[in-house]
Amino acid sequence: MRVFGKIIVCIFSLGVVVTLALAISIYSFGKNSKGEKSDCVIVLGCSVYGETPSPFLQWRIEEGYRLFKEGYARYIIVSGGKGPGENISEAEAMKRYLIDKGVKEKFIIKEDKSKTTMENLVNSRTIMEGRGFSKAIIVSNKYHLKRASLMAQKVGIDASFSGVYVTPYKSHERIGFIREIPGLLKFYILGM
Known about the structure:
single chain; 192 residues; alpha/beta; Rossmann fold; two-stranded antiparallel ribbon; 7 strands; elongated; Rossmann-like_a/b/a_fold; Cell_Envelope_Assoc
């Protein structure tokens, strides 16, 4: 019985160490990421309420817009399909938002077929190849950037990263961060 107890303690301790290591990796990557001069900005999709971008998506779009306005990239790829409860695709909602901000339509490239982050990046890479783009800045919430970076590397996108932290929704940010820990572990194990 004592051996069984030691095994349980070891497994629990290993779980704590792995969880902490993943959490530190997610936090430090998001905190230290900075966009670099690129051909395009890829804004990863998030929920749309009917036709209105959710607060998380609005902050992502604003960050993509900032990078575009400051000359980090000439084009913005808005990436995201139409999910449950969404009247239009996430990409269409982002495109409309950017046009309202004054971005000319010719600088916005819509990718509206993807349902997951991996699909966002695979489809965006195809667009990049078709346009002759070699480097991108990927925009998402800070907690999402570590896993997005591994996916970008897997699909062959040369990228830097720029993240947002949606301060009015700190509880949602915390929940997203916590959910990202098993998500990152799953990626390391299954590669998806």
